[in-house]
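Project standup — Tuesday

K.O.: blocked on the structure for the chain from last sprint. Re-posting the sequence here as requested.
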Amino acid sequence: MTDVLRRGRAALAFSFFAQGVAFALLVTRIPAIQDRYGISDALLPAFLAAVPVLAGVGSVCTEQLVKKIPASQVLRWSQPVVLLALLGVGAGGHMVELGISLAAFGLAVGALDASMNMLGVSLQRSYGRSIMLGFHAVYSLGGISGASLAWVGAHWDLPLVVSYLPVVLVLLPAALVGSRWYVDGGGPEDKAAGEAGAAGGHVAFSLLLPLCLVMCFAYIGDSTVSNWSAKYLEDVLGSSDEMATVPYNVYMVTTLLGRSIGDLGVRRFGAAAVVRAGAVIAAVGFAVVAGAPGAWVGMLGFTLLGLGLCVLVPQTFAAAGRLFPGASDAAVARLNIFNYVGFLIGSPLVGALGDAWSYRGAMLVPMALVLVTLVYARSFETEPDRYGGEHERPRTADVGRGSNGL
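H.V.: unblocked you, prediction finished:
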């Protein structure tokens, strides 16, 4: 690999890390944000739902922006907006200031997520081997770091602005400096390939739909863990308050571990095999959680969930890039919307089923949805090769079968 690609990979990895820190600092301090602005329990869901909705809008806008400017430019300027919006959430004192900050955060985070994964897909194509899981592993590391910083702030009862300001002061200039080395893809070879694989540079939604469903189902599973693991362990499995905080941390750590080694699995066995294994492990994790007789078995289930779900999202972005090599930016932007769709559906779905039926039974629904991924595993097919990389199997027949299956 050239030095240009190596620097581009390192710079993009730092961007994933910074985004993980920022997002974790926001979502883990929601109770403190609610107290600071006096948001009622009835109004809080509207604020929380607004962020992923606006992020979806930001992702759609990014698809149009990258037709005129490189994805690296979108990433270069959306990341500072995310960090400054986070600071605005901590520094504001009135509801309108919170609304403006969250709106800016949501729109910018949609552009940031889309452009980061666009660059990741193009870099993976340049490397000729799987590296997407590594980027998302760094994101998980950022999430763990951000959650740890949030714990420190909560433990010492620090004002939100005091918790957020040092982080922004460190990450913002570092991200701007690192952005000098971002590498855009889209060379002549990609455009030529796109004419065959993406109808002359256009994304056929019927071909993208299986990946969209996998993305949505993965985030329904992820939001189930992030929003309900603590309540489930305490209310259903009878754990202590302290132990109830552990499952999400365990989930994040196992997500980091799984993504750290996942690229090796893709290079050795192919992406489809890794996705199938991840779906099965995640389904077993949900089954263990649903049937757990106590807190420790429940924690085992959440551990399996981290190992299983962690591979699905990065490989879904990578598969979109392979399926539409000449229109990968547009494919990634559209696919990224289903990240937020899954996030919006997951928590209310499990909550409604838990109230109407039982929380044990509710855990079987994301389990079933994750298993549907096995039906669409064909969309991820690559073959490992003897040089340690992977290449696609011929897609002509696959595309026809996928289209008929829809």
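K.O.: great, moving the ticket to review. Confidence is low (pLDDT under 50) at residues 186-200, 385-389, 392-406. DSSP finds 18 helices and two strands in the chain.
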